[in-house]
Specification:
Blueprint lengths: L1 H15 L2 H61 L2 H53 L20 H22 L2
Length: about 180
């Protein structure tokens, strides 16, 4: 608006014939236009600098966060002792394999004992029948005699198993809290 008034004044002075004053006023209008353009450029530069500072601040924050996460990962790696954990896992796997093989052997043995008991029962029945016939029934009145002994528990096996289990739990606990 002020420039429009100044231009109108320049035109009036030119029409009146005051060329010298019109030139001075025209120069001032041109200077003010240039100053206005410089202010717009400066404003744009300041906006750009503000955006760059915001970007740098964001990068500093990201860098700080990455440093903290790197420290956390480093501490986590120090806490996890991979060689000890893998050794414990291998030992546990071997123990489990041994237990599986021993269970399989026990099942096979029990199956064989069951087969032997059936064969023994048939043989006993045949012997009883022959003795019954030979003694003319007198031996049948006596009853049957068994040759089986009462089964004894094996506390040693349970104690060994419990001791091995306790040892493994202590090792695992030691690995987790080392």
């Amino acid at each position: 608006m002020a420039q429009d008034k100044a231009r109108a004044s320049v035109k009036q002075l030119a029409l009146k014939g005051d060329v010298k004053s019109a030139r001075i006023l025209a120069k001032e209008v041109v200077r003010s236009e240039k100053q206005k353009q410089k202010l717009h450029v400066s404003k744009a530069r300041l906006g750009s600098i503000g955006i760059q500072l915001s970007n740098q601040l964001a990068m500093v924050k990201v860098t700080g966060t990455l440093q903290k996460s790197t420290e956390i990962m480093k501490l986590s790696n120090d806490l996890i002792k991979l060689p000890q954990i893998s050794a414990a896992m291998r030992e546990m796997s071997m123990e489990m394999t041994k237990a599986g093989i021993m269970e399989e052997m026990m099942e096979d043995t029990l199956d064989m004992v069951d087969d032997d008991e059936e064969l023994e029962e048939e043989a006993d029945a045949e012997v009883d029948a022959v003795l019954f016939n030979l003694t003319e029934g007198k031996l049948g009145k006596v009853g049957t005699v068994t040759t089986e002994l009462p089964a004894a528990e094996k506390p040693e096996d349970e104690a060994e198993t419990e001791a091995a289990m306790a040892r493994m739990q202590e090792q695992l606990h030691g690995l987790l809290h080392s």
